[in-house]
Specification:
By secondary structure, this protein is of the alpha+beta class. The chain has one domain: Reverse transcriptase/Diguanylate cyclase domain (Alpha-Beta Plaits, 2-Layer Sandwich), CATH 3.30.70.270. Helix content is 52%, strand content 17%. It is globular, with a radius of gyration of 16 Å.
Length: 166
Amino acid sequence: MPELRALQSCWHRDDWMRWTDTLPEATVSGVLFVDADFLKQVNDQQGHAAGDAYLEGIVTVLNHSLRQEDRIVRWGGDEFVLCTLSCTFLPALHDLRQRILTALDQHHLSCSIGIALKQPQHSWDSVIAEADKNMYTMKQRHHAQHDKQQKSQGRYSSCHSIRFAA
């Protein structure tokens, strides 16, 4: 299966690792670990073409939310790492995450995003692991909030009902 257009703009993990090796040791960077929410439900309920379009929509929003010098890395199937050299303190990372989440919501897309700040004394692996852990904390809160909302609207079932227009 050929890569989708928006997904082609993402760096591969090995290219990103080589790039980080070229950065000065004193580099401070913001890292966001992004995981697509409800992709399995989109695939199961609307087919894999809709799931592909869902991922492509997420990457398009991410591309529009970042600066040219920032990097989007396809970390796994529905996981992405964003590396921003321009957001180098936590309040700015929180603001960036909120802007991305708002833009995703406007397009009926959903992601969980964990953040971490890479300081010179930290390895990239440890910072990505921290952002990943923070993403899972956010995902648990998001899914609990979604379940509560569905239940209050009388639409709760063991399988989330997701609508996404491909």
